[in-house]
Amino acid sequence: MIKKVVILALIACSTVSCSAIKEYEKVYINDPDMVLGAKKVDRFQTNFHSYREAASGANGGKTGGGCGCN
């Protein structure tokens, strides 16, 4: 009897987190906070490349000379 109660309790606890998303909650999926940004390594490489090559591409990064003074 106790074994059945424990199994029932485990099943009940494991299915509690399953829920459907309501229509009005789907608005938050497109929230700007949920947008993934560039990884730190990619940002570093882009920044390093723009200084090294003395140019910047269409990445919206820094513009200016290649000496690293800017």
UniProtKB/TrEMBL annotation:
Domain DUF4266: 21-70
Highest taxon listed in the record's lineage: Bacteria
Keywords assigned by UniProt, alphabetized: Signal
Signal peptide coordinates: 1-19
The protein's name: DUF4266 domain-containing protein
